[in-house]
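ok so for the tutorial part 2 we go from a plain amino acid sequence to predicted structure tokens. step 1 is just haveing the sequence, like this:
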Amino acid sequence: MHARPNLKTMMLPIAMLGGALFYPWMGYVTFLSPYLIFVMLTITYCKMEPSEIRPHRFEWSLLGVQLVISGLVYLLLSGWNHTIAGGVFICVFVPTATAAPVITSMLGGSLARVTTYSLLVNIVVAASGPVILAAIGEHAEMSFWESMMLICSKVVPLLLAPMLLAFTLRARFRNIHDSIARHQKVSFYLWAVALFIVVGSSVSFAITNWKPELTMTMIWLALGALIVCVLQFWIGRKVGRRYGDAVSGGQSLGQKNTLLAVWLALAYLNPIASIAPASYVAWQNIINSWQLMRKEQE
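step 2 — the prediction. this is what the tokens look like for a chain of 298 residues:
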């Protein structure tokens, strides 16, 4: 029998609802998001052994699936509507969210596997993204190297710095490291605050960019994002289950770096295409909240 929902299990839905309601004021707190993610990742990485970060068949299989799905999505939709095709494509093509290891750890998945896959897919996107997006985009004036360095600058510091800090603490200040490692629940509450901010920012973004003549296009972009979000979590869990880790597979493939996705859409595609990754924020966090609530009730 499942326990009745308590305050902790209700925190994530409350955070999402609060973000949607208080979206006009998100501009005052959005700057906190990277700092919250940095602290969450540092706490989470204190659980991990450095030697565990090695790509295996699990990571390579997920990478192949992600690239195939992104290509198929674009090919299927581009003949219908180029803007919708680009927006939905970017929701599949972008790398795993920097916060994915935190959620995976809370759900009981493999922190090492998600971290390894996140590093691998970020390298692939940074190397191939400028070429692919320049080919399908509408207004990319940057050179390959400029694009790659910009993508890296938006991903690498937040991805690697917490890991380096955690491993340095492990090597030099073991007492501090072990104390942090024992307080993993702090990440849950930090995630609730981050969720409040990111949902509010997404609602604010969608409302700011809304135009009556674009209503149907925006609806299709949001629906397309929902479909590929559910699809990626489902396929990721299927692939992960083959390697005994459905949770890590689902989070690796389904939880996306939506901030990077919005930036890439604005930089390379029709700006309205950025509604798809902005919507993806809500969809993936609804799924994450539902998963965490189920986990808390077990």
